[in-house]
Amino acid sequence: MRYKHDTSVRFGSGKGNSLRKLTPYLFSAALALVLVATAALTGTKPPTRVVHAATAGTTAVALGGSSGGQVASTSGSQALGGTRTIAGSSRTVSGPHPIYDPGVTDNSILVGGSTFTSGPAAVYGEQIAVGFQAGVNYVNDHGGINGRKLVAKIYDDAGDPVKQLANTKRLVEVDKVFALTMSYAPITGQYVLQKKVPVFHLGQFNEEFTNPWWFSVGGAQRTSSFATADFATNYLHAKSAAIFYLDVGAANYSRAYANEVKSDWERWGVKVPVMVPFAADQASCSDAISQAKSAGVDFIDFEIDASKVINCGVNAQLNGYKPPKGWGGYLIGVPVIHEALGDFSEGMYAFDAFGDLYNMPEYRQEVQKVSSKTEWYSSVTASYFLAALLMRDGIAKLGNDITRERLREVLNTFTDWRPAELAHASDFPTWTWRPDCHLALHGGYAIQIQKDPSGDLKWTQITPQVPAVALPPGASAPSDFSHCTSVFAHGSVFGRYAKR
Questions:
Q1: If we measure between CA atoms, which residue out of 355, 387, 385, 379 comes closest to residue 367?
Q2: CA-based end-to-end distance of the chain
Q3: Backbone angles phi, psi at 50, to 5 degrees
Q4: CA-CA distance, 26 to 280, in Å (whole number)?
């Protein structure tokens, strides 16, 4: 069954599809501008720490193993037949009757999200929506969640942050969804924090790892910048680097953030003679490429979105230039790079984590059933498929007491979680959430654009999964992630795989 959503856009259909692939990743710049506008208009910012808000009658949760936590009884939660009070709910129920938050019935669980399946970033948005819908279909094909069907309602926001916030409010207040997906924390974080609705997400911005209601399966941009410096220095043996960064004066899109990244490189002993800011609406990369070429840097670190990287590749090709050790970054490990740049993209580097999920036949089949035009070999598609499985495994542990607060508490006990389908995979990460740390991903590997035996370009895994993110010498974990000690390592994690 093909996926449909409320604006009747069909994936992979319509004219101009090839043109759209050239500019699909503009949304990250739009989100950065939202941060600026929010600060200017309200003087506030989203929460920067994971908060564990205890309430009277909170259900206690005992720590579990790889399959997650087990719910235990405590004061305010008694055995069936007594009176139970659910945290975050005013309802008191006597006897063994189910307890449901909005969106849950005896037969179904309604969840929803908003993403950009139209507009300049539509290719990316389609991967988000198709990946999640494929995951929902997979869950339902295998019996649902304790016999309940998972139902997804997805709205198109065309990459407009104002529309995404409005759609998120509509999902919660009108459609009455139980949980959310796809919503970006810089846009909807304060609203979600107020309404206390779990969000299942890929994750990019720090707020998607510090807001207590976000459960992200990817890595944060800051941890990926650590990984880029470690990989280029200790695997590729780069001695100098240029940093191309988006500068709108906020969060991870600012000169201050770029200076933090520069410090990472310098702590590894790498010189950074070139730092080039990009405006949100900047298309040209000719000056940046000229500076990198003139300085003779070994490596270019792209702290910019994929559309700008494509422009840089075009300008570099016109100048007959590639940095000798390579180029790469966090936001570029997607098929659109080699689709747009062709053979000149060969050799670019990025990161992924979902290894053996790509080898799971049912994953590919479910994606292709939703949309035969959507790229399944993409971390974006894979992450939202996985987000649906995380949602399944969390809700499954709630039995018939299905409340948002209880779901959050259970997810915060998941230790070395993997879905059962990949429990014994050799090339797949694990996730551990705690009330004070939602930077859950433990794993990841470097990828490079290479030609496969048939001559097609493809992002190819070139290192094993690494268990942690390397901090450069003398550095400590960012303050936002100070409680996530198991995520970080002192000393290189990629250097052990380098060719000598």
A1: 385
A2: 51
A3: -75, 130
A4: 8
pLDDT single digits (tens) 31-88: 544 444 444 433 444 444 554 443 322 222 222 233 333 323 222 222 233 333 333 3
Structure tokens at 286: 């000719």
Q: Could you tell me if 300 and 409 lie in one domain?
A: no
| Angstrom distance (rounded) from CA 110 to CA 144 | 12
Q: Are 175 and 110 in contact (CB under 8 A)?
A: yes
Domain hosting residue 320, numbered range: 221-352+439-497
Question: Distance (Å, rounded) from C-alpha 63 to C-alpha 434?
Answer: 10
- Residue 69 CA to residue 219 CA, distance in Å, equals 22
Judgement on whether residues 160 and 280 belong to the same structural domain of the protein: no
- Residues (pLDDT < 50) of the chain are 1-27, 32-48, 51-95
296 and 313 in a single domain? The answer is yes
- The Cα–Cα gap between 159 and 164 comes to 8
Tokens standing for residue 290: 């000229």
Same domain membership, residue 319 and residue 244: yes
User: By the 8 A CB rule, do 287 and 317 touch?
Assistant: no
Per the document, the length of the chain is: 500
pLDDT in tens, 215-238: 999 999 999 999 999 999 999 999
Please check whether residue 400 is in contact with residue 93, taking contact to mean a CB–CB distance below 8 angstroms: no
Nearest to 164 by CA among 304, 27, 22: 27
Rounded to whole angstroms, how far apart are CA atoms 438 and 365?
Answer: 31
pLDDT digits (tens, 9 = 90+) for 160-205: 999 999 999 999 999 999 999 999 999 999 999 999 999 999 998 8
pLDDT at 36: 46
C-beta of residue 86 within 8 angstroms of C-beta of residue 96? no
